[in-house]
């Protein structure tokens, strides 16, 4: 197992880490309905408390924080692990929120029904070089049914939202290739990494694959599920892998380059920070930890 440094503990299902210029990490605590800043010494500061289920985060072109809010989960506490377990009894609806980092003010940018779109459980987000953002809707699971969902594109000013890919099998992580010409999305329950050819801002080739826009790039064997992802500077797609516990590093041609093991079966997210982007920050959500490790390749510098 790789050498991990524990930065913070006692977090309530952390996800969505964003490395900030001052060395802090902003992340969500989904089960607590809050967004938290983790200082380099492990100290915690509350940034905002949007409630529901804050999930994926990204800094936008305006310097504000954009948050995918899934509306909330129920949880099981089993064998020392906190485990999401279906749609919350007080589910508050899927939405995209914009948060002022200085004041903590929360604005609902898009919600279910806007522009004729259905938002059930927005999950992960990535900005492109044009100032717009892609996000996945993972949907919600109930006792005997699961939402059929899609992948969306939106403008940061609240003026445009469109479901670009439908259906998608409960998409989770999302990212862009270094040149911005390929969109990647990880499906949780099928454990597939999908690739989409971007033809214009907010557009993909809808005829690329046998079943539509998506081309299956990689699917592992065994009992595991894909969560969020990050792209490194070499174009590898680093997918948090639940069950096997770690990060699957997949080349743009669909080959498994590496597997970085972690001790938490609910390893959910990765981002990179530090002056050379060689420090990987990983959320171990089941045990409520943020950890870091040296990474063999720099992460990809994000657009904002």
Automatic annotation (TrEMBL):
Domain SMP-30/Gluconolactonase/LRE-like region: start-end pairs: 13-284
Domain of life: Bacteria
InterPro entries attached to this UniProt entry: 6-blade_b-propeller_TolB-like, SGL, SMP-30/CGR1_Lactonase
Protein name per its UniProtKB record: SMP-30/gluconolactonase/LRE family protein
Pfam family, one: SGL
């Amino acid at each position: 197992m790789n050498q991990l440094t524990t930065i913070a503990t006692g977090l309530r299902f952390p996800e969505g880490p964003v490395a900030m210029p001052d060395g802090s990490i902003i992340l969500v605590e989904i089960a607590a309905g809050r967004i938290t800043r983790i200082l380099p010494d492990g100290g915690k500061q509350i940034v905002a408390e949007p409630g529901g289920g804050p999930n994926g985060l990204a800094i936008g072109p305006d310097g504000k924080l954009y948050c995918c809010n899934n509306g909330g989960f129920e949880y099981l506490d089993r064998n020392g692990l906190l485990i999401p377990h279906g749609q919350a009894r007080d589910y508050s609806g899927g939405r995209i929120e914009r948060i002022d980092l200085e004041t903590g003010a929360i604005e609902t940018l898009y919600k279910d029904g806007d522009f004729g779109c259905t938002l059930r459980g927005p999950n992960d987000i990535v900005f492109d070089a044009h100032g717009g953002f892609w996000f996945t809707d993972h949907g919600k699971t109930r006792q005997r049914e699961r939402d059929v969902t899609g992948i969306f594109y939106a403008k940061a000013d609240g003026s445009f939202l469109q479901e670009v890919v439908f259906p998608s099998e409960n998409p989770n992580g999302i990212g862009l290739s270094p040149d911005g010409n390929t969109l990647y999305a990880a499906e949780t329950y099928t454990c597939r990494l999908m690739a989409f050819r971007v033809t214009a801002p907010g557009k993909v080739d809808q005829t690329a694959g046998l079943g539509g826009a998506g081309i299956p790039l990689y699917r592992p064997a065994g009992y595991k599920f894909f969560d969020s992802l990050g792209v490194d500077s070499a174009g590898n797609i680093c997918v948090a892998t639940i069950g096997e516990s770690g990060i699957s590093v997949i080349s743009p041609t669909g080959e498994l380059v590496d597997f970085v093991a972690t001790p938490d079966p609910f390893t959910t997210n990765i981002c990179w920070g530090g002056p050379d982007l060689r420090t990987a920050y990983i959320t171990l959500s089941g045990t409520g930890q943020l950890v870091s490790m040296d990474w063999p390749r720099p992460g990809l510098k994000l657009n904002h």
